[in-house]
Design goal:
- This is Phage-related protein.
- By secondary structure, the chain is mainly alpha-helical.
- The protein has a domain of 87 residues.
- Strands 1-2 form a two-stranded antiparallel sheet.
- The chain contains six helices and two strands; from the N terminus they run ββαααααα.
- Helix 2 packs across helix 3.
- The protein is elongated.
Length: 126
């Protein structure tokens, strides 16, 4: 048990800066992320969005990509391209989301990679 006069003080050297109008916590300058933190949040967000759109289209909420694009307020071309992420190979999705493997290609390239055979996707993505 601790006594009322016992105090533990923990100091964590962090800086708070605004980025895109939102506060962002910056780590110390000598901080190196561990290997388990290699996920790109933009890729994860795009994959999640693509799967959500795919589910909505499969449920019959939208008949065409154009209707979906109008509903979410984005360009049809953008929605069409990002929707392809829902059709990536299961191994690629697993490594991007659960395995924490960093992709060797950009998000833009991942969108076009979905049209290839699953075996080729794994080779080209990593």
């Amino acid at each position: 048990m601790t006594k009322p006069n016992d105090t533990i003080r923990v100091l964590i050297p962090l800086k708070v800066r605004k980025k895109n109008g939102r506060p962002k916590i910056l780590p110390p300058a000598n901080y190196l992320p561990s290997e388990d933190q290699t996920q790109d949040p933009h890729v994860l967000r795009a994959i999640g969005r693509a799967w959500g759109w795919r589910r909505r289209m499969d449920a019959g909420e939208f008949a065409t990509i154009q209707e979906l694009a109008e509903a979410v307020g984005l360009a049809e071309r953008h929605v069409s391209r990002q929707l392809r992420l829902a059709y990536l190979a299961p191994e690629v999705l697993k490594r991007l989301t659960c395995g924490r493997a960093a992709s060797a290609v950009s998000l833009y390239d991942l969108c076009f990679l979905a049209g290839e055979a699953w075996g080729e996707q794994v080779e080209r993505a990593f």
